[in-house]
Amino acid sequence: MKIMTENKVIVLTGPAGAGKTSIASYLKDRWQVPQVITHTTRAKRIGEVDGVDYYFESASSFLLNDYLESVHYSQADYGSSMEGLQKGWEQSSLACIVLDTKGAETYLKRLGSQAWVWYVTIGDVAKLEKRLVDRGDDQAAVHVRLTAPEFKRDLQLPEELEGHATVLKNDDWQETCQEVDRLIQSYRAL
Ligand SMILES: Nc1nc2c(ncn2[C@@H]2O[C@H](COP(=O)(O)OP(=O)(O)O)[C@@H](O)[C@H]2O)c(=O)[nH]1
Ligand SMILES: Nc1ncnc2c1ncn2[C@@H]1O[C@H](COP(=O)(O)OP(=O)(O)O)[C@@H](O)[C@H]1O
Fold first, then answer.
1. Does any ligand 2 atom lie closer than 6 A to the CB of residue 122?
2. ipTM of the complex
3. Is 145 a catalytic residue?
4. Could you tell me if 9 and 114 are in contact, meaning their C-beta atoms sit under 8 angstroms apart?
5. Nearest to 118 by CA among 33, 48, 51
């Protein structure tokens, strides 16, 4: 499939609770940046909508899609398709996607400078648990997530992304929004 060189995708990555999904929503609401919807076999959380937050799949339906990359993360499968990315780019030359750090590495390898990686983090990682609880995740799900090796891995910016990622420390939401505004404005001014 042809990749238009003027298109770009913001790859939001980082540990659970850091604020990737919140930033994706802000990008959509404030800057009309469409989010590429990915596929997952994990159970739907309260309030999540199929086709909006994810394409929720069974173990067998997950296998029917053609993925640009897919990962196993904390007891579930996740995958993103080239079709999804193209759909995003049909709406806007700047799209965004939420991926784990393995997926972000793959996007960087496959898309080069068309992948703009934003590593979302937090000053005090101990606060991540409270964010997940406040989000409404049940206690068992929070425990599974916080003890997953993938979660622990994503607490650090991987070596492969060093020098290729914009680091966003999402401690204060208003400051994060201002930083996102600055990044998008400087991109648009290019
Ligand atoms: N590589 C990859 N990661 C994905 C994809 N979709 C979601 N993720 C990542 O999977 C991880 C788990 O996502 P989720 O279950 O929504 O939990 P959350 O991180 O607690 O919001 C997160 O790091 C997401 O960024 C995908 O298609 N590919
Ligand atoms: N700067 C912040 N301060 C406090 N809470 C935040 C901040 N950013 C996001 N949150 C909240 O933390 C929870 C996890 O954020 P979310 O965007 O779902 O993270 P992720 O997608 O990285 O797992 C949500 O309830 C969200 O509203």
1. no
2. 0.98
3. yes
4. yes
5. 33
Could you give the CA distance from residue 138 to residue 136 in angstroms, rounded to a whole number?
6
Distance of CA 6 from the midpoint of ligand 1 (Å): 26
**pTM of this prediction?**
0.96
- Find the catalytic residue in 145, 153, 182, 188: 145
**Among the options 30, 45, 110, 182, which is catalytic?**
45
Residue nearest to atom 21 of ligand 1 (CA): 16
149, 102 contact by CB (below 8 A): no
Q: What's the token pair of residue 36?
A: 């590429």
Which of the listed CATH numbers 3.40.50.40, 1.10.12.10, 1.10.1670.10, 3.40.50.300 matches domain 8-188? 3.40.50.300
Q: Which two tokens stand for residue 51?
A: 């086709």
Tokens 């996740």 belong to residue:
78
pLDDT tens track of the chain, all 190 residues? Answer: 444 458 999 999 999 999 999 999 999 999 999 999 999 999 999 899 999 999 999 999 999 999 999 999 998 999 999 999 999 999 999 999 999 999 999 999 999 999 999 999 999 999 999 999 999 888 998 999 999 999 999 999 999 999 999 999 999 999 999 999 999 999 988 8
Backbone angles phi, psi at 177, to 5 degrees: -60, -40
Q: What's the distance, Cα to Cα, between the start and end of the chain in Å?
A: 27
